[in-house]
Amino acid sequence: MTSAKSDEAEGEEPAAPAAPADRRERARPRRRAVGRRGGGWWPYVFLAPWFVGLFGLTVYPMLDSLYLSFTDFDLLTPARWIGARNYTHMFSDDPVFWDSVHATLLYVVVSVPLKLALALGVAILLNRPLKGIGVYRAAFYLPSLLGGAVAMAIVWRQVFGGDGLFNDLLGWFGIKGQDWISSPDTSIYTLILLAVWQFGTPMVIFLAGLKQLPKDVYEAAAIDGAGTVTRFFRITLPLLTPIVFFNLVLQIIDGFKTFTPAYVVSNGTGGPLNSTMLYSLYLYKKGFTDLQMGYASALAWVLFLVIAGFTAVNFVAGRYWVHYDD
Amino acid sequence: MGHRISRRTLFRTVSGLAAAGALGPALTACAGGTGAGSAGGDLTMTWWGSDERHAAYKKALAVFRKSNPTIRIETRYSGYDGYFDKFNTQVAGGSAPDLLQMDTALVAQYARKGILAPLDSYVGKSLDLTGFSTTLLAAGTVDGKLYGVPSGIGVNQLTVNRSGLEKLGLKLPDREWTWNDLKNIAVDVHKKSGGRIHGVDDGGGSALQCFEIFAREKGQPFFSADGTKLGFTADTLTEWWEFWAGMRKDQASPPPAITSAAHNDLTKNAVVIGKALFTFDSGVYGAGGAITDVQLDFLPTPQGGFAGAREGNFVNGGVLLSATKASKRVADSVKIMDFFAQDTTAIKDMQLQRGIPPTQKARSLISAGLSETDKRNMATADYISRRVAKATDALPAPVPPPQGADRIRDLLFQSNLAVAFGRKTIKAQASEFFDQAQNILAG
C-alpha cells in the first residue's frame, strides 16, 4: 500500500505548470482535473494525511530515538546527553549484549535456510494438478496464520516443557526426554522449530513463482532425457532465484526482529542463561524493564544498521547468483 | 513469466520498504515524552496479584464507593509479570494511574525519580496511620519522606508441603532450624521418595527470599548503607553457592532446568509441580498443581548453624499503596489508602491478601475468618516478627534498594544457574558477579 502511494507522490510532483500539453495526453482523468484547476498544491492536500503519518509516526520518532541513543533517558526523567557511552558500553562491557547477538545470529542462520528449503519443497509438492489441492495449500499455510500469535508460543512452551507432549511422544519410543525449553543447550532450537514451522508465507510466494515457470523449457529438457533431479537443479532452481532471493531478504529481516515467541516461550526472561535472549527481546527488556531507554535506542539503531548491512550484502552477493530474465 | 519478478527496481523498493517497516516499530517504540497525570473523570488504580487478591480489592472498593459516591474508580489489575513494564510506559506516556500498588523493593527508585507523591502532609489528617509501627512505615519511607502506605507485615517464609512430608514419614522441622537441618531433611525427602522428589527448590539464586538473610546472618547487608556498593563479600557468596552445589549434588535440590523453568512463573515452581516439598518462593499457595489439596505449613528461613551467626530475618511492609505525583487526585487517593489502612470491612475483605495486616486492631479483626492455612501463615509470620523484635544482634532493616537492585537480583539468579548448568566454576562466576554488579550500581 505505502509503496504505491509513495510512487504516486513522486509521479505527481511535476503536475505543476511545466509541459501541460505533453502530460495531458498521457495522464489519467484524475490528473487532468488537477491540472485544470492549476493548483499545484492540491495533490499535497490530499496526500497530507499520509505525510502526517509519515513524519509524525515514522520519521520524527526515528530521529528522536537516534537522539535518545546518545542520552541516558530512563523513560521517567528528562534525558541527559552522554555522548557515545551507550555504544561503547554495548561493545566493551555488556556480556548480555553479546549473548543476545549470539542467540540472534544462531536463530537467523539456522532457521532461515531450513524454512526456505521446507517452503520450496512443499511448494513443489503442492504445484501439481491434484484433486482438492486448494485444501492442502490452505492446510500448509495455516501455521503461518497461527504461528505469530501469542497463543501458539504458549502451546510451544507446553509441548516442549519437561512434562510436555513432545516428551510423551519420545516416551513411546523408549527415549527419555528432557525439559527442552529450560535447558540452555536446546531452548533456542525450540524457537527455531517454531519459526521453520511457519513456512507458509515463503511457500505461497514460491508457489506463485513455480506457476509462472515456462513449460516449454521442461518439455525440451524431458526430450533431452533430463531426470527430475537434473530438472530441479538445472531449470527450476535457476529460474526461481529471484524468488529465492526475495524470500531470503525478507526472512532474514524477519528473523532479526523476532520478538514474540522468545518473549512468550521464555516467559519474558530470555533464559535459561540468555539462550533465548533474541535481540529484540533484550532491547525491550532494557527499555521497558530496566528503564534504560537511551541504551535501548542505541540497541535499536545498531539493529537497524546490522539489518541494513545484511540486506546490502545480500543485494551485492545476489548479483552473482540471481538470474533475471531481462 | 519472469516479467514481474525481474523488475529489480520494484523489487528493491518492496524489500526496502519491508526493511523500514520491520525496523519502524523497533526504533519508534523508544520514543516518548515525560509527564503524567490524568485529569478529571475516573480515578485510576492499579495493582498486581492473584485472582483472590483481585476479588478482595474489588469487594472492598465496592464498599468504598458506597460511602464516597463522588469518587469514581477505574481499576486495572494483572499478575506481577510486566506490571512495572506497563507502569513505566504509562508514566512516560503521561497516562500513569493515580493510585497504585507499589513494590517495597522499587519504591525508592520511583520516589527518587520524582514519580511518587509524598504523603507526609496527609498523615494524621485524612490519612490515619494509628497502630503502624515506625519499622513498618520504614518500608514506604525514602529519604525521610513517606511515599507508600504498607499493606501489612511482610516476612520471608518457606512454604512447606506438610502432607507430602507426612506421607514420607517425615516430620515438619522445628522453627528454630539451621541450614544444616534443611539439608538433612531435603536429603531425606529425596531418599524416602525413592528419588522422585527433591527436598527444597534451589535457593542459590534467590536474593530476597534467602541469600539476603544468609548474608545478614553473617552480619553483611545485601547493599551497603549508602546503596552504592554490595554489602556482602565474595567469600559469603562463594560459601553460599557451595552450599547449593552440594544440595544439587545430593539431589536435595532439583536440577537447574526445573529452577530455570520456575523463574518468574509460580505455576512451574518445584513444589507446585510436585518435584519438591519446600520452597522459598512466597505466594505459591493458590497456584494449584501438586499442592491443590494438601496441607501447607510455613517456616522461617533457616538460621545459622555456624559460629557467630546473627538474626538474619527482617520485617518489611508487604506491598505499598502509593499515589503518583503528577496525579491531580492525590487527596482522593489518600482517602482510599486510609480506607484500606483502617476501615473494618476493608480489612476483613482483604484478609491476608496483601500480607499480615499491619496493626493489632486489624489482626484481631480478621483472625476469626481465616482458613487453617492462613492461620498457620499468620502464626509463623508473627513468630518471626517477634523474634526479630527481640533479637539484639540483628542488622538494621535493609536500606531502600538502590537503582538497578532488581537487575542485581536477576544477575544473582542467572549466575547461580550458570554454576548449576556447569558453565562456570563458582570462583569464576563469583568474581564475574561482583564485576557486573558494581557496573550496574555505578550506573
From TrEMBL, chain A:
Residues 1-31 are annotated as: Disordered. Residues 101-314 form the ABC transmembrane type-1 domain. Pfam families: BPD_transp_1. The keyword Transcription does not apply. InterPro entries: ABC_transporter_permease (IPR051393), MetI-like (IPR000515), MetI-like_sf (IPR035906). GO terms for cellular component: plasma membrane. The chain crosses the membrane at residues 41-63, 105-126, 138-156, 188-210, 231-250, 296-317. It is found in: Cell membrane. PROSITE patterns: ABC_TM1. It is a multi-pass membrane protein. Belongs to the binding-protein-dependent transport system permease family. Keywords: Cell membrane, Membrane, Transmembrane, Transmembrane helix, Transport. One of its GO terms (biological process) is transmembrane transport. It comes from the Bacteria. This is ABC transporter permease.
UniProtKB/TrEMBL annotation, chain B:
Residues 1-31 form the signal peptide. GO terms for molecular function: ATP binding. Keywords: ATP-binding, Nucleotide-binding, Signal. It comes from the Bacteria. InterPro entries: Bact_solute-bd_prot1, SBP, TAT_signal. PANTHER family: ABC TRANSPORTER SUBSTRATE-BINDING PROTEIN YESO-RELATED, ARABINOSE-BINDING PROTEIN-RELATED. This is ABC transporter ATP-binding protein. It comes from Streptomyces alanosinicus.
